[in-house]
Amino acid sequence: MSVSEALPQPEQSRRRRFDWKALSPFSKPLYKDLTFQVLVGMVLGVLLGVFVPIVGKNVNVVSTIFINLIQMVVGLVVFCTVTLGIAKVRDFGKVGRIAVKAILYFEVVTTFALVIGLVVVNVLHPGSGMHVDPASLSGAKSVHAAKSMSLSTFLEGLVPTSAVDAFAKGDILQVLVFSALFGCGVAALGAKAEPLVGVIDTVQQSLFWVIGKVMRLAPLAACAAIAYSVASYGLHTLLSLGSLVLVFFLTVAVFFVVVLWPISLFAGVSLWKLIRYFREELLLVIGTSSSESVFPQLTAKLEKLGVSESVVGLVLPTAYSFNHDGTCLYWAATSVFLAQATDTHLGVAGQLSLMVVLLLTSKGGAGVAGSAIPMLALTLAATHTIPVASVALILGVHKILSAAFVFTNIAGNCLATVVVGKWEKAIDWTQMNRELAARV
């Protein structure tokens, strides 16, 4: 052994400092992390709504502007994503196969969501004993049902009268149909369309840059949205319907454990790690109750996760229109809750018919922002038993419930994209494991 080896080395002679960064789930300083910023914004929003309600009622404009900024580009992002997904595949058989698998998956999972929502609310009876007279509800006059939608009307509504009109109205379903057709046209041109594909790809990257800048407003938007809810309804009003809130949160938890967790095991991915990977987006939708606000980020992060661009481009936009797991839980739970609260008897046959109606109306509200309450009113009107005016009973807690069901929608859509990617053998598992490990 040499003398230098025998002597104690400086690094060995000093006690090592404890590396707190190694334990931190954040890859950058805490105050710079979007997750932390959104959480702080939500806490400040509650305090602002409680102690300065006059200000709280007037800051919602910040949240509205933020959501409008995102929605301003969502249609174009869907167009670019779907077009590129189809154009780069150039295999119409594969495109059709992915679409069919995705829609079948959505139908099965949303049906499970409806069943779980009905079962939990029937077992726990959160509305029993309230004996509410719908005519006495102060907000009854402000509740309007959406227009009834037949199958033929729904199918007709899939096709826009013009592409510009679909983008102008922000109708995601119509934009999706146009984008799919346009993508097929680009794919059919083959090599001739390469310059156009390059332009669309450049446009998509430019839109992502815009989204990245807008996302800096996310903490302020979350603060404003929470402040407005608390200032408008008050904590005591929200807590008065706490039983429904608790039961619905339990329903969401049951859905995650009974449905999404087994699906994640089948897909070969950790549900917890997936949620951690999308934590910024999930926290943002809790604060804003808007799923559209995170669509561009989900697209980019799913591709970064290792899921093929073609799968992401086809499955995620379709999921936004057809895979509303959380919203189905919400409609099922609140429909029966309102029946219980108004002493409306719903037998087995009545609840089965309610489930069939929900399967139809859930597609009628697909991709329409803020459609939960109008579509719930439409569902109640279609039952001809539960008073439509009773919807006013849950307006005070709708913001809390919507945060939970939008969170579930986003988590379910991300998992659905991974599942279809696994079926198509279109996932780089090495990249996925590396990305998930880096975020935990």
Automatic annotation (TrEMBL):
Localization in the cell: Membrane
Keyword Metal-binding: no
Residue ranges of the TM segments: 34-55, 61-86, 98-124, 214-235, 241-269
InterPro entries: Na-dicarboxylate_symporter, Na:dicarbo_symporter_sf
Chief subcellular location: membrane
SUPFAM superfamilies per record: Proton glutamate symport protein (SSF118215)
Keyword Transport (UniProt): yes
Pfam families named in the record: SDF (PF00375)
Keywords, comma-separated and alphabetical: Membrane, Transmembrane, Transmembrane helix, Transport
Bilayer topology annotation: Multi-pass membrane protein
Protein name in the entry: Cation:dicarboxylate symporter family transporter
Taxonomic source organism: Nocardia jiangxiensis
